Amino acid sequence: QGAAFHAMAEGIAKYVHRTDPSIRILLTEDSVGSTENMQRLNAGEVQLAIVQNDTEPGGLDVRTLLPLHRGVCHFLVRIDSDIENIYDLRDKTVAVGNGNSGNYHLVHELLSHFGILEEENEFVPLYESITDCGDKLENGEVDAILVVTALTSQSLSDLVRRGNVRYVSFASSS
C-alpha cells in the first residue's frame, strides 16, 4: 500500500498546487501503511493522512475527507496451487503486507473470522510489501497473497497478466 498511497498523495499535492499555489503540501517518507500513518497523525507529525477506512483512529477524533478508491480484498495464488478457498490457507505461507499496516490488520481479522489463527501458528505470515510478494508468489516462495487495494490495481493486474497466478473467490469459502 505504501507505494499506492504515496502515488495518491503526490497526485493530490500536484492538484492542490495547481489549484492554489499558496497551499504547501510536504509529503513525508513512505510508511508501512495505514496504521503507521494514523500513528503519525496522532503524534502530530502530520496534519493529513491517507489510511484504509477501517484503520483504528487511536484516540483521535478523525474525519474522512474523501474516499480515494473502493478497497477490494484480492486473494491470489499460483496458477498450479491446490488452494481453492480460504480454509486451504492453513499451514501455508501468506503474504499479509508489512507488519502494522492496515492490510496486515484486515487480513488478520479476516483469517481469524474463518478460524485460521496466527497466534496458533495455523498459517505463516510473510511481512513484506505486497509489491515484493508478487515475485515470491510467482516463484513459489509464498503460497498466497491477501491484499486490500483498488479494484484495478496496476501491480496486481500485471501480476495476473503474466499468467503464473490466479484469483481465488471468497464465495468458495462459505
Task: Explain what the structure shows.
The protein is an alpha/beta fold. 32% of the residues lie in helices and 14% in strands. The chain contains 5 helices and 5 strands. It has a 5-stranded mixed sheet, sandwiched between helices. α3 links the parallel β2 (93-95) and β3. It is globular, with a radius of gyration of 17 Å. The mean pLDDT is 83.
Order of helices and strands: HHEEHEHEHE
- What is the helix fraction of residues, given as a range? 25-40%
- Strands of the widest sheet, in order across it, are 3-2-4-1-5
Mean pLDDT reading:
83
Radius of gyration: 17 Å
Question: Which regions contain 5 or more consecutive residues with pLDDT less than 50?
Answer: none
- How many extended strands? 5
Outline type: globular
How much strand content do the residues show?
Answer: 5-15%
Give the structural class: alpha/beta
- Biggest sheet statistics: 5 strands, mixed
What is the terminal separation in angstroms?
A: 27 Å
Give the oligomeric state: single chain
Number of helices: 5
Give a quick summary of the entry.
The protein has 174 residues and is an alpha/beta fold. The chain has helices spanning 2-19, 34-42, 102-113, 130-138, 154-161; strands at residues 71-78, 93-95, 124-126, 144-150, 165-167. It is built from 5 helices and 5 strands.
